[in-house]
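S1.2 Input.
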Amino acid sequence: MVNMLKILVAITVLLIIIGIALLGGRIFRLLIFKTAKTKSSESSWILAIMGLVTAGLAIYYYINNKPDAIISMWAGAVLFFLGGLLQIIARRQLHDDKTFQERLSAGFEAAQTGIYAKLRHPGKTALLLIMLGICLATRSWWSLGLYFALFVPAVLYKISQEEKELLDQFGDRWISYKEDTKRIIPYFF
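S1.3 Output.
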């Protein structure tokens, strides 16, 4: 029997190694999933709680039921890896800036290159992929339900809060950038 939790831990270690290679001393910036600083931390707390509940339920289910590995679980492991890789790429493109907002302040045009030319919130896309991967890899249908019912709306709420802040700060330039990019899924949404 394949232990998917061990596979997810191994993928996490691999992502840390890749992160160190690409980010060096800035490895802890991988934990920053925000695009902009908001006035209130309410949306961050909601997102964190929903994420912990969803991931906790998935891991609890897996430990108690130890399901046999099926194709959807392997697909979940791949999504987990791709989400982590996307987060590394997004963080690397911000260079020394902690958030996309800081990068925009340094030079609006320079911030609109690479992945940010297609996606406004690649860190949120990465977070969605990571959590979906955990839900699928553990074969917890309850956590998958929570993912869609609570976690995805929490991410969308966080995005709306950040975009209000960016609109207030950058005005028409943000609107123009927003029209040329998608929120979290390239060419779609």
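S1.4 Remarks. The two ends are 38 Å apart (CA to CA).
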